[in-house]
From TrEMBL:
Domain GRIP: 35-83
Taxonomic placement: Eukaryota, Metazoa, Ecdysozoa, Arthropoda, Hexapoda
Family matches, as Pfam families: GRIP
UniProt cross-references to InterPro entries, sorted A to Z: GRIP_dom (IPR000237)
Protein name: GRIP domain-containing protein
Length: 86
């Protein structure tokens, strides 16, 4: 395989794993029986912030993850979007 193809596979795999962990954390916050170790949540939050700052293609997806992990209210999310478009 060529290097660009391998890089693309790595990026897609990283996004898939990120989305899977995000779904698991959201489910645990909704009261489902899935328990997530606080250390895992912290590492995921760290990754979400890192990719929010470095991945311009999907910054909104990473922002959504950060907002949900931190438990922002709908009003807080609205204020964040308002501030980002100003």
């Amino acid at each position: 395989m060529h290097a660009p193809h391998l890089i693309k596979i790595k990026i897609l795999t990283r996004r898939y794993l990120f989305q899977a962990m995000y779904r698991r954390i959201v489910q645990s916050q909704k009261g489902n029986k899935t328990n997530v170790d606080p250390e895992v949540t912290l590492q995921f939050l760290k990754s979400a912030i890192y990719y929010f700052l470095t991945d311009p293609e999907n910054h909104q997806g990473h922002l959504n993850a950060i907002e949900n992990i931190l438990g922002f209210t709908d009003a807080e999310k609205k204020n964040i979007r308002k501030a980002r478009t100003s």
